[in-house]
Amino acid sequence: MMRISANDTSDFMLRPTAAEKGLPLAAGGITGSKPAPAVSSLGNPVVDTRRLWNCADEDRQELQRLVENYLREMELELDKMAKAIADGAFTEMSRLAHRSCGASATFGMVAITIPLCELEHLGRVQTMDGARIHLAQARRQLELIRDFFKTQPETAG
Question: Which of these, 125, 109, 91, lies nearest to 40 by C-alpha position?
Answer without folding.
Answer: 109
